[in-house]
Design a protein that fits this description.
Blueprint (H helix, E strand, L loop, with lengths): L19 H16 L20 H11 L12 H4 L46 H4 L1 H5 L8 H9 L4 H9 L6 H12 L4 E2 L2 H6 L8 H13 L16 E3 L13 H5 L7 E3 L21 H9 L19 H12 L4 E2 L11
Antiparallel strand pairs: 1-4, 2-3
Helix pairs in contact: 2-7, 2-8, 10-13
């Protein structure tokens, strides 16, 4: 697969000199890198930001906070409400509801492999996982709180003090620390070591004959890899499949955010990893099955002025569709399934 390759870290030139400071620095860096968990086969190293490096203690604190509904205004809505782990950390049916009890209009995207995201949300409104967290917390229809109220609520829970101290060096609770901890946890929600990853790594028996035929449909006939490429099967860009005329008012995605008509109807290209486990599909849950999604693409998307010019009808009979579905199922991997909610919150 031309656009899809296994990334490996570049070999760094050996530094010259061996002063005590340099030796200590290298030892410290080596220790830090060793402490980071290795991602599953097929995924590159997780990029950790300089101001929020990997810390097992921050990940564990973030796990507690992710599942804690006390971050919300009514104490009933947590991050996991919209991103349940049993559904591959994505929205399911029926649509989850926030503090107001109203179903949320957009389906919650999966958090799997969002560590590699260049931006977050369907419309890319947040540049990092840390920045993303503020939006659901303060959205009146989701968690309905404020950054100050959430900080105060968590700071009043005595059991969190030692967790913050282990994660940050002292027990002070700030919203910035809350976001760093949750983002750290979310960077560990990974999926790799799929049958297709093992196939690319040299195990030619890992992929079925049907899935191998499906790869050809994916690469050539349907040209799916035009947008779904790289280790995470997404170019992290935005495209319009056509605005659904049945939705009123229409959701213009990126266009509604940046005010540019050329971006009307554009939403982020999603990962295809775990695709068979993360329905319903599209940002508005319009399709229940992957078969429905492939029919949509086969017909050329939603006709209209907002449709991306790269979307066009293509031949996909029943056998070819079955092959393509088999290939998509070969992208199901492992890693995220081991993440469980805490048995007890602080």
């Amino acid at each position: 697969m031309g656009a899809r390759s296994l990334n490996t870290a570049p070999t760094e030139p050996r530094p010259r000199g061996s002063g005590p400071f340099l030796v200590c620095l290298l030892v410290a860096c080596a220790s830090l890198l060793t402490a980071q968990p290795k991602p599953p086969l097929g995924l590159p190293p997780v990029p950790w930001p300089a101001d929020n490096p990997y810390s097992a203690e921050r990940v564990e604190l973030g796990r507690y906070l992710f599942f804690d509904p006390r971050l919300s205004a009514n104490g009933r809505v947590s991050c996991a409400t919209c991103h349940p782990p049993e559904h591959a950390f994505t929205g399911s049916d029926p649509a989850p509801v926030g503090v107001t009890g109203k179903p949320l209009p957009r389906r919650a995207p999966t958090l799997i492999n969002r560590a590699y995201g260049k931006s977050q949300f369907y419309d890319g409104r947040a540049s990092t996982l840390e920045a993303q967290i503020r939006f659901p917390v303060t959205n009146p229809d989701e968690m309905g709180s404020t950054t100050d109220a959430t900080t105060q609520a968590i700071s009043k829970i005595a059991g969190y003090a030692p967790l913050f101290e282990r994660a940050f060096g002292d027990p002070q609770v700030t919203f910035e620390r809350i976001t760093k901890a949750i983002a750290s946890f979310e960077r560990t929600i990974l999926s790799g070591n799929s049958a297709y990853d093992r196939y690319l790594a040299g195990d030619k028996q890992a992929l079925s004959t049907q899935a191998k035929r499906g790869e050809q449909v994916f690469e050539r006939t349907g040209e799916c890899s035009e947008c779904h490429n790289g280790p995470n099967f997404t170019n992290e860009k935005f495209a319009s499949l056509g605005v659904d005329p049945a939705v009123h008012p229409p959701d213009f995605g990126l266009g509604a955010l940046d005010g540019k008509r050329r971006d009307d109807g554009k939403f982020k290209v999603p990962t295809l990893r775990e695709a068979s486990r993360t329905g319903p599909y599209m940002h508005d849950r319009r399709y229940q099955t992957l078969d429905d999604v492939l029919e949509f693409y086969r017909k050329g998307g939603q006709p209209g002025p907002y449709l991306d010019s790269r979307i066009a009808p293509f031949f996909l009979d029943a056998p070819a569709k079955a092959d393509l579905l088999a290939f998509l199922e070969s992208l199901n991997g492992e890693g995220w399934q081991q993440i469980k909610p805490p048995e007890k919150l602080p």
